[in-house]
């Protein structure tokens, strides 16, 4: 018995229904009154994005530059008045708006980009493609208790690629939410509770650094695409 529903067909075949959209913007979610997120599928060339936004840093790799532009474009979709020109990157690599009570996070993987914004809470977001390659690094980011978590809840081995990808994505989301670097995925971020219903759910994550913080990481699968986010 598989952990999730059988992998769906490519989301590009879906018409608008509820929160689903035709490509390239195929998912947008209002989390609450002050926070929202969106996912974009990269089908355009660079000129499309350069008509709306500009690259803030020098990126020579064509696809990475396209991902960068798509992330910034998503911020303006979520908030047409988002001050892109004020974005700065901290010493830890986290993009932020200095001196402003507004929070955002961007992620990209392959031909997808995702962004989340909030008016009053720190946020984190991550998007990943499910791939068997995740098995090669599982011991670097999973503790023994997290391996047991999967076995206790689902009576199946940790080798399921969807579950591994979800665990990695959840820890990446917490890392981005924290935004200060200097933490270990395996030692400082512990996933303690996993709830799944249909193609989504949440994971309870414990971040241990100078203090211990409990976070609820929500997630959703779109076929072979895994999206996770947190607002706290």
Give the radius of gyration. Answer: 17 Å
Unreliable runs: 1-18, 155-159
Main pleated sheet: 5 strands, antiparallel
The coarse overall form would be: globular
**Could you give the count of β-strands?**
11
- What's the total helix number? 6
Query: How would you classify the helix and strand content by structural class?
Result: alpha+beta
Strand arrangement, major sheet: 7-11-10-9-8
- The topology string of helices and strands comes to EEHHEEEEEHHHHEEEE
Q: Hey, roughly how much beta strand do the residues contain?
A: 25-35%
Q: Ends: how far apart?
A: 34 Å
Q: Approximately how much helix is present in the residues?
A: 25-40%
Mean pLDDT: 85
Structure description:
With 232 residues, the protein is α+β, with helices and mostly antiparallel strands. The chain has helices at residues 46-50, 62-78, 138-141, 144-154, 161-178, 185-188, and strands at 25-30, 35-41, 88-89, 95-96, 103-109, 112-118, 123-129, 189-197, 200-208, 212-222, 225-231. A 5-stranded antiparallel sheet has the order 7-11-10-9-8. A 4-stranded antiparallel sheet has the order 1-2-6-5, covered by helices on one side. It has a two-stranded antiparallel sheet with strand order 3-4. The radius of gyration is 17 Å and the shape is globular. The two termini are 34 Å apart.
Walk me through the topology.
Layout: E1 25-30, E2 35-41, H1 46-50, H2 62-78, E3 88-89, E4 95-96, E5 103-109, E6 112-118, E7 123-129, H3 138-141, H4 144-154, H5 161-178, H6 185-188, E8 189-197, E9 200-208, E10 212-222, E11 225-231
Antiparallel strand pairs: 1-2, 2-6, 3-4, 5-6, 7-11, 8-9, 9-10, 10-11
């Amino acid at each position: 018995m598989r952990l999730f529903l059988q992998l769906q067909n490519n989301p590009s075949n879906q018409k608008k229904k509820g929160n689903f959209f035709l490509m390239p913007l195929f998912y947008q979610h209002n989390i609450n009154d002050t926070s929202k997120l969106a996912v974009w599928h990269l089908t355009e060339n660079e000129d499309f994005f350069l008509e709306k936004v500009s690259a803030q840093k020098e990126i020579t790799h064509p696809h990475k530059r396209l991902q960068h532009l798509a992330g910034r474009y998503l911020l303006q979709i979520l908030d047409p008045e988002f001050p892109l020109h004020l974005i700065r990157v901290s010493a830890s690599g986290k993009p932020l708006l200095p001196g402003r009570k507004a929070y955002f996070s961007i992620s990209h993987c392959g031909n997808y980009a995702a962004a989340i914004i909030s008016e009053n809470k720190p946020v984190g977001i991550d998007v990943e493609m499910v791939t068997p390659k995740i098995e090669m690094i599982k011991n670097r980011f999973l503790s023994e208790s997290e391996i047991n978590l999967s076995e206790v809840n689902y009576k199946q081995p940790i080798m399921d690629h969807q579950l591994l990808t979800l665990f990695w994505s959840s820890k990446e989301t917490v890392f981005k939410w924290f935004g200060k670097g200097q933490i270990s995925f395996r030692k400082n971020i512990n996933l303690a509770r996993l709830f799944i219903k249909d193609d989504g759910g949440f994971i309870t994550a414990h971040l241990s650094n100078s203090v211990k913080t409990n976070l609820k990481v929500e997630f959703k699968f779109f076929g072979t695409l895994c999206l996770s986010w947190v607002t706290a």
